[in-house]
Structures are given as structure tokens and as C-alpha cells.
């Protein structure tokens, strides 16, 4: 009889400990999301000159003695013409910036989605909520950029950020499924 009471008491303490650990992990995940949003918004508040990588690209190409014949690839995005042949550094920087948008919002979506799945929110709701957070933060991000010198705000960037969010959730879900199989 005494052994049964001790086993039950041990199981009760174990369950309390597990709940406490889950609570700490939930707080940590929320804190990571908040920190990541703060990083996004701090980058939004920077001027174009603070984020300009073209001087670095020019130094790198001079050091590596890159002398390639570039094709005449060009396109227009938000009223700006990007030409690989005429302005190669601006062209490369454009793709770097858009890739950064995709990456930053992929991480945000993965953090939100992962936290919601950890809290046992069903998959569809977790995806929807994570993407709502991505769109909301992206819209605020673009709004903040209106007040930065020489930065442009574009609804197209919100679309790029949403694409990044979808990619982040897909990668997170795939990685989680692969690790569960192992």
C-alpha cells in the first residue's frame, strides 16, 4: 500500500515537472519570436546607406579580378529598372535584399508555427496563424520603411515576405517529419 502511494506521488511530481518545463519552453519560444520581430523592425529603421552592400561587392570583384561578359538581363520592380549589364552591383544587391526578405520571414513563420504546434494547435490553424503574423509584421515593416531615408515601401515586398513565410513553414514541417521518422 505504501509503495503504491509513493508511485502515485512520484508520477504526480513528474507530471508537474513536465508541465513546468512545457511552460518554460513556451515562454522561450514566445521570447524568440519577439526578439526576431525586433531584429526585423530594427533593420527596417536603417537607411539605405547602412544596408548598402554595393561598395563591398565592388571591392570583392576587384580583389577577385572578376571580368565576365554579362548578359543583358533586366527587369523593373517598383518603378526601378535593374540591369545586370549596366548596373551589375545594384542587380546583385536587389537579389540579395529579396533573398534576405525571404529568409527573415521564413524564420519568423517557422518560429511561430513551431511554437503553435508545440502548444498542440492543429496544423491548419497553426499555418494560418503563422502566416497572419508574417503578413501583419511585414505590413508594419513596410510602414516603418516609409520613414527611413532613401527606402521605399512596397506591397510587393509583403508578397515576398509571405512567400518566405510559406517556405519557412514548409521547411520546418519537412524537417520535423524527417526527424520523427528517424
UniProtKB/TrEMBL annotation:
Task: Tell me the Pfam families matching this sequence.
Answer: VanZ
Query: Record's InterPro entries?
Result: Phosphotransbutyrylase, VanZ-like
Query: What keywords sit in the KW lines?
Result: Membrane, Transmembrane, Transmembrane helix
Q: Which residues form the VanZ-like domain?
A: 30-175
Where do the TM regions start and end?
A: 23-43, 94-114, 126-146, 158-179
| Classification via NCBIfam families | vanZ_1
Q: What is this protein's name? A: VanZ family protein
In the UniProt record, the gene name given for this protein reads vanZ
